[in-house]
Amino acid sequence: MKEGSKVPRRGNVPKREVLPDPLYNSVLVTKLTNSIMLDGKKGVAQKVVYGAFEIIKDKTGKDERPQIREIGITPLEFYKKYVPVDVNDFATLANAPLKNRPFNRRYRIRFSANVAEAGDMEFVNVPLDVFKKAALDQLTAGHPIWFACDCTQFALRKDGFFDQSVVRVDQLFGTEFTGDKAHGLEYGDSPSNHAMTFTGVNLDEDGKPNRWKVENSWGKDAGKDGYYVMSDAWFDRYVTELIIRKEYLDDATRALLETEPVELDPWQPLTKRCR
C-alpha cells in the first residue's frame, strides 16, 4: 500500500435498491437478469430472460406474469406503489410529415389537459429516422414503448398481423392507392385511434428493423396470446406517436423540449387539415 493512502473503514455498506423490471414489474426478474448479465449488457440479458419466459408460456399455455388486484386504492396511490417510473422522464414524439406542422418543433394543444394537475398535451414532431431510432434505442435497452397508430389499416385482428401485404385491397379493386402518411393524416383517413405497446423488434443482418412485436389490450384471443407482429413498412406508414424516455433521445431532440411550444387550437389537432 502506498504511503499516505487511506484504508477504507469497515462497516455497513448501504445496499443499492433493486428496481422491478419494466415488463413483469418484478424484483425477482431483475435479480435473475442481473445474474446472467455480462459486461453490463442489460438489454441483452433481458432479451434472454424474456425469451425464456415466452418459451415456457408457449409450452405450458400459462401466462405467469403477476396480476395486481387491490380494492380501495386511488389511481395516484396505485401509481406511487406499483409504477417504478417518473412520468417527467418521458416525452412524446410524433412523426407527422405535414407542411403545416414542420419537423423539429415542439407543439402544445390548448385546452387538452384532462388531469387537474397536468398541463396541456405536448409533443415534438420529428422526421421518421429520428422517430424510429428513439424506438430502437429504447427497445434494445430493454424498455417497452407506448405508441399510437391507426389500428384499422391492413390488420388481421384474429391472426395478429399489421402489414399492408396481408390485405390486398389494391388487387381486390384493381386500383393503386398512392396516398402517403401525410395524406392519411391530413384528410382523416388514418388518424391515431388506438394505443398499444412495443415489446420487441427484430433486426436483419444489417441491424435494420424488419418487424416489431406488439402487445395489445384485446385479450388473449386476439393475435397470438394478445401479441401481434407489425411489419416495418406498416410502422413507417401508420405509427404516429411514441412515448420515449428522455435518455434515449438525441441531443438535438432533447434540446427541443426546452424551446417555446407552438400553440395549437383544439380544433387544429395534428390529424386535421388546417391551412
Can you describe what's shown?
This protein is an alpha+beta fold and 275 residues long. It has 2 domains: 17-84, no CATH class; 86-264, Cathepsin B, Chain A, CATH 3.90.70. Helix content is 27%, strand content 20%. It contains 8 helices and 11 strands. The chain has an 11-stranded mixed β-sheet with strand order 5-6-9-8-7-4-10-1-3-2-11, covered by helices on one side. Helix 1 crosses helix 2 (42-60). The longest helix is centred in the N-terminal third of the chain and has 19 residues, at 42-60. It is globular, with a radius of gyration of 22 Å.
TL;DR of this structure?
This protein has 275 residues and is an alpha+beta fold. The protein has helices at 27-36, 42-60, 75-82, 128-140, 169-173, 181-186, 232-238, 251-256, and strands at residues 90-94, 105-109, 122-125, 145-149, 155-156, 161-162, 194-203, 209-215, 227-231, 239-245, 262-264.
Write out key terms for the chains shown.
275 residues; alpha+beta; Cathepsin B, Chain A; globular
In which order are the strands of the major sheet placed? 5-6-9-8-7-4-10-1-3-2-11
The coarse silhouette is: globular
What's the helix-strand series? HHHEEEHEEEHHEEEHEHE
State the helical fraction: 25-40%
Uncertain segments are none
Count of helical segments? 8
Task: Using the 3D structure, state the CATH architecture of the largest domain.
Answer: Alpha-Beta Complex
Largest sheet: 11 strands, mixed
Helix/strand structural class: alpha+beta
